[in-house]
Automatic annotation (TrEMBL):
Domain of life: Eukaryota
Name listed for the protein in its UniProt record: Thioredoxin domain containing 11
Start and end residues of each stretch annotated as Disordered: 761-782, 821-841
Thioredoxin domain sequence ranges: 51-173
Biased composition (Basic and acidic residues): 767-782
Alphabetical list of InterPro entries matching this protein: Thioredoxin-like_sf, Thioredoxin_dom-contain_11, Thioredoxin_domain, TXNDC11_thioredoxin
Signal peptide interval: none
Length: 841
C-alpha cells in the first residue's frame, strides 16, 4: 500500500465531521471505521537484509554454504572420512583474515578432508537459529562420527594444517623396535597401545584407543600427548608389554605406567583422563590466542618461568635452529629441560637421545720455578652422544701465560691445601671451580698440588706480590658449581624451580619486545627471559657471540638458581630515550638508563620529583617545581630532576608508594636520602627549607684524611670557606628573586581584587537586568496567552456560526420546499373549485 500522509488523514477527518453534522446516529460507526482504515496504513521503514553472497572464491576447494544450510553440513560430513567445518560471519575481520589461510590448507588437503564453510550470520539460515557462537570464526573437525574437535590455535595456515594432519592420523604405527625407541626418545609424553589384529580385523579395544587419541586432541588442541600403536608381540616386548589390549604411558623421570583395566573402565574418556593425570611435561608450548586471555597469567602464577621465543614451523619441514640443531638434529632446548629435571639418571632409557656426555679438557699452567705448587686448569665441555668427534678445547690466553691469572690460581687454590704436618705433601691437593665472566658459558676448575711442604723466601715474596694484585684484575666471582655439567638435576638442588615454556617468535614477538627484546629482530629471532611473577622481576638472557645457545641457557639457568644470584633485574625502557629532544636547562628529565648516573652523582645535590602523565596532582605541582628550578638555576651543585615512573622501570630501592613524591639525595651522602614529609604542603618556601636543611657540604665527603697542620690544612679550610661563600651568595640571589616574585605576586593579587570588585558590580547589574527581562517575559507571555485564548474563542465562534449557517440553509431549503408545496396545493385547490363551480353552473 501507498503511504497515507497525515494531511490526507486530516482531510478525511474534516469530511467525516461534515457528515456527522447531518445525522450523528446514522454515520458515527461508519466514520470511526473509515478513520481507522485511512490512518492505520503505516509502511515498514526497516529495509530488508540483502541476500548473502559467496564468502570463498569459486576456485577454492571449499563448499561454501553461504545461506546457512546446516542440514547440508550433516549430509557432507556423513560421507567424508575427515571434515573441516568453518563457521564464519561475513562482516567479521577475523573471518576475513582466516579465509586465505583456510584456502591454503584446503588446496593441500582437499583429497583427504572435506572442507565446508557455513555462514552463521544469515538471519534466515538454520545455522543462525540452531547454533549460538560467541565469537567468529569457529573451526570444528570431525573424524568419521567423532567430534566436534574444536581448533583453538592461531588462524595461520601451517598451524591449522598441522592440526588437521594430527586428526587425520591420530595414531603413529610402530612396526619395529627401532621405531618404538625413536618414538619414545622425544621429550613429549608418549602413549603406546598394544593390539593384536590376528583374531579380529579391528579389535574393539583398538577403536577405544583411537577414540582416546582423538579425545586428547579435543582436550588439548596443541597435541602435547602423542599416541602410538604396536601390533607385533615381539615389538611390544621392547617396553615389556605382553598382554593384548594394553595401554602403556612412557614417563622419563618416574616409572612408566600401564592402564589399570581392573580399576578403571576401558573407555576413551577414562584413558584420556588417566594419561593427563599421570603424564610428565618438561617443556610446554604456549600459544596465546592474540585476544584478551588469562592463559599467560595462569602459567606464570605457578612459579618462575623460562620463556624462550624461537622460530617454529609446525609442519616440521624446516626445523628450528634453536629447537633442532642444524647439524646434529637434536633438541637443544629439550635437552636442557630434560637434564634440568633429571634428579636421578637411573630412570633414563637407553635410547634417550636428549642426553649428552661431558668431558674435561685439561691443561697445565706453567708457574714460576720458584713456586712450590703445580696447578692444572680443566674446561668442562659437553656434546651429544651421537657426535663423531669431541669438541676442541679453547682456553683463554690468560691461562697459557698470564701472571695475574696464575697468581689468582694460587690464591684460590693454595689455601685449600691441607697442612703438611698432618698429610703427606705429595698427595695433598685443593680444588675450586670458577667462572670466567658474568653470565658465563664455560666452567673451569683449577686443582693445585703442593710439591714441597715448606715455603722458601721466594714463595713468601710471591705471596706478598699476590696481596698487591688489584681487585679489578681478579675474576669477578668464584662460586662452587654443582657436580657434573652444573645443570643436570638442578631442579632438585634449588628452591627456585623453573618451568620451561616455548613460544613462536613470529606470533608472539610483541610480547618479547615488552619483556626486553630489541625492536629489530635478529637473524634467528630467538629471545629468552626468566619471569618471576611472585617477586615482580624478570631477567633477560644476554647472548655472547662466542658461546652456543646451550652454553648460554645453561649459564643463565645456573645463575638464576644460585642462592645469591648475580643476575640483574631487567628494567624496561619504555620512554623514547633515542629521540633528539632539546636539552632541558631547568629540570632534568631522567630515564631508566640515566637514572642512576644522575641521582648517584656525588658532586650534586639532587631533588627528584616522581610523577606520571595521568596524575592530576602532579600537573598541579609542575609550576612550583619550575619556579624552584629557576631559583636554583645559578647554583651548579643542586640539580632539580624528575622521572616518569609509569614509563621507566627503576630499581626497587628507588621506588615510591605513591605519586607525587619528592626525594632528596644529598651530595657525598647518597645513602642518607630523605623523602619530603607527607604532612607538609608542597610549596616553594617548604621546598627551599627542605633543600637547605638536608643539602650536603664538603666536610661530609668520604675522602682521605687531611693533615691537621701545615699548608694542606689551610688549603682545605680555604676551599671549604669558598664553598660556603658561594652557597651564601646563591642563597642571597635566591632570596632576592623570591622577594621580587613575592612583590609581583602582591601586585597581581591587588589587581585581581580590584578586578573582582568590578566584576561583582557588573554581575549585580546583570542580575537586575535579568530580573527585569524575566518580568517582561512573563508579562509578554501572559499577554500572548490572552491573545491566543481570544483567537481560540473567535475560532470557536466562527466554527459555530458556520455550523449555524449551514443549518439555516438547510432549514431555509426545507421551508422553501414546504412553501412551494403549499402554494402548489393552493393553486390546485383553486383550480379544483373552479372546475366544480363550472360544472355546477
Amino acid at each position: 500500500m501507498d503511504l497515507i500522509t497525515w494531511q490526507d488523514c486530516l482531510n478525511s477527518l474534516h469530511m467525516l465531521n461534515i457528515i456527522l453534522l447531518c445525522d450523528c446516529d446514522l454515520f458515527a460507526p461508519l466514520s470511526v471505521t473509515l478513520l481507522i482504515y485511512f490512518c492505520s496504513r503505516a509502511k515498514n521503514v526497516v529495509a530488508a537484509a540483502r541476500p548473502p553472497v559467496r564468502f570463498f572464491s569459486p576456485d577454492a576447494p571449499v563448499v561454501d554454504l553461504y545461506l546457512g544450510q546446516l542440514d547440508q553440513v550433516e549430509r557432507l560430513r556423513s560421507v567424508a572420512e575427515v571434515s573441516f567445518i568453518f563457521f564464519y560471519a561475513p562482516w567479521c575481520a577475523h573471518s576475513m583474515a582466516a579465509r586465505q589461510e583456510v584456502q591454503q590448507v584446503a588446496k593441500k588437503l582437499a583429497k583427504q578432508v572435506q572442507f565446508v564453510a557455513v555462514n552463521c550470520w544469515w538471519s534466515q539460515g538454520k545455522c543462525r537459529r540452531q547454533t549460538h557462537f560467541y565469537h567468529y570464526p569457529v573451526i570444528h573437525l570431525f573424524y568419521r562420527r567423532f567430534g566436534p574437535i574444536e581448533y583453538r590455535g592461531p588462524f595461520v595456515a601451517p598451524y591449522m594444517e598441522s592440526f588437521v594432519l594430527r586428526v587425520i592420523t591420530p595414531l603413529t604405527y610402530l612396526p619395529s623396535r627401532a621405531h618404538v625407541e625413536e618414538f619414545l626418545a622425544y621429550h613429549e609424553p608418549r602413549v603406546v597401545g598394544f593390539f593384536q589384529f590376528n583374531s579380529s580385523p579391528q579389535p574393539p579395544g583398538y577403536i577405544t584407543f583411537l577414540s582416546s587419541a582423538l579425545q586428547a586432541l579435543k582436550w588439548d588442541f596443541r597435541g602435547v600427548v602423542r599416541f602410538g600403536v604396536v601390533t607385533n608381540k615381539q615389538v611390544a616386548g621392547a617396553i615389556s608389554l605382553t598382554e593384548d589390549e594394553t595401554v602403556f604411558l612412557h614417563r622419563r623421570f618416574n616409572s612408566s605406567l600401564i592402564f589399570p583395566r581392573n580399576d578403571l573402565n576401558f573407555t576413551s574418556e577414562a584413558i584420556c583422563r588417566w594419561v593427563f593425570e599421570n603424564h610428565e611435561t618438561v617443556l610446554q608450548w604456549l600459544q596465546p590466542p592474540g585476544t584478551k586471555s588469562r592463559l599467560l597469567e595462569e602459567e606464570l602464577t605457578k612459579g618462575p618461568a623460562l620463556l624462550l621465543f624461537v622460530p617454529h614451523n609446525p609442519l616440521g619441514t624446516q626445523p628450528s635452529p634453536v629447537l633442532h640443531d642444524c647439524c646434529l638434529n637434536g633438541h637443544v632446548v629439550a635437552d636442557i629441560a630434560v637434564r634440568y629435571h633429571s634428579c636421578d639418571n637411573s630412570h633414563h632409557s637407553s635410547w634417550d637421545k636428549s642426553f649428552s656426555f661431558r668431558s674435561l679438557c685439561c691443561q697445565s699452567v706453567v708457574l714460576p720455578q720458584s713456586s712450590t705448587s703445580v696447578c692444572e686448569v680443566c674446561l668442562s665441555l659437553s656434546w651429544p652422544s651421537f657426535t663423531t668427534s669431541p669438541l676442541h678445547c679453547l682456553f683463554p690466553s690468560s691461562i697459557q701465560g698470564g701472571d695475574v691469572f696464575q697468581t689468582y690460581l694460587r690464591r684460590c687454590c693454595l689455601h685449600q691445601i691441607p697442612s703438611p704436618v698432618s698429610i703427606n705433601s705429595a698427595t695433598s691437593m685443593g680444588c675450586s671451580n670458577f667462572l670466567d665472566s658474568y653470565s658465563p658459558f664455560s666452567q673451569y676448575s683449577a686443582c693445585c698440588r703442593k710439591v714441597e711442604p715448606q715455603l722458601n723466601e721466594s714463595q713468601a715474596k710471591e705471596e706478598s706480590e699476590m696481596q698487591s694484585v688489584p681487585p679489578s684484575l681478579i675474576p669477578p666471582f668464584s662460586v662452587p658449581q654443582p657436580e657434573g655439567d652444573g645443570i643436570t638435576g638442578l631442579r632438585c638442588q634449588t628452591n627456585r624451580t623453573l618451568r620451561f615454556y616455548v613460544l613462536d617468535v613470529a606470533l608472539n614477538w610483541p610480547l618479547a619486545v615488552r619483556l626486553g627484546a630489541s625492536d629489530d629482530r635478529s637473524d634467528d629471532g630467538s629471545f629468552a627471559a626468566i619471569v618471576n611473577l611472585k617477586d615482580e622481576v624478570h631477567y633477560v638472557l644476554q647472548y655472547t657471540p662466542a658461546a652456543t645457545l646451550t652454553e648460554s641457557l645453561e649459564a643463565f639457568i645456573r645463575n638464576f638458581s644460585a642462592p645469591y644470584s648475580l643476575l640483574q633485574r631487567h628494567l624496561a625502557r619504555r620512554s623514547d630515550e633515542h629521540s633528539q629532544s632539546p636539552p632541558r636547562f631547568l629540570i632534568t628529565e631522567l630515564t631508566t638508563s640515566s637514572f642512576l648516573p644522575s641521582v648517584m652523582d656525588l658532586q650534586k645535590d639532587v631533588l627528584l620529583f616522581y610523577y606520571t602523565q595521568w596524575c592530576g596532582f602532579c600537573s598541579v605541582l609542575n609550576h612550583i617545581i619550575i619556579q624552584l628550578a629557576r631559583l636554583l638555576q645559578g647554583n651548579g651543585t643542586i640539580t632539580v630532576a624528575r622521572v616518569n615512573v609509569a614509563r621507566n622501570d627503576l630499581p626497587w630501592e628507588f621506588m615510591v608508594d605513591h605519586v607525587p613524591s619528592i626525594l632528596f639525595f644529598p651530595r657525598y651522602r647518597k645513602h642518607l636520602s630523605v623523602k619530603f614529609p607527607d604532612n607538609l604542603p608542597i610549596t616553594l618556601p617548604n621546598l627551599l627549607r627542605f633543600i637547605l636543611q638536608h643539602s650536603g657540604s664538603l666536610h661530609h665527603a668520604h675522602k682521605p684524611s687531611v693533615e691537621t697542620e701545615g699548608p694542606g690544612h689551610s688549603a682545605f679550610l680555604r676551599s671549604e670557606f669558598l664553598t660556603l661563600q658561594r652557597e651564601v651568595q646563591a642563597l642571597h640571589h635566591a632570596r632576592e628573586r623570591l622577594s621580587q616574585q613575592l612583590a609581583q605576586l602582591w601586585r597581581d593579587n591587588r589587581r585581581l581584587k580590584f578586578d573582582t570588585r568590578a566584576l561583582e558590580t557588573e554581575n549585580s547589574e546583570l542580575q537586575q537586568e535579568r530580573q527585569s527581562l524575566e518580568e517582561q517575559h512573563r508579562e509578554k507571555s501572559r499577554q500572548l496567552s490572552e491573545v491566543v485564548r481570544r483567537l481560540q474563542e473567535l475560532a470557536d465562534a466562527s466554527e459555530n456560526l458556520l455550523n449555524e449557517n449551514t443549518l439555516l440553509r438547510v432549514l431555509l431549503r426545507v421551508l422553501k420546499d414546504k412553501t412551494e408545496a403549499r402554494e402548489q396545493a393552493e393553486v390546485e385547490r383553486k383550480e379544483t373549485e373552479q372546475k366544480r363551480s363550472h360544472m355546477a353552473s
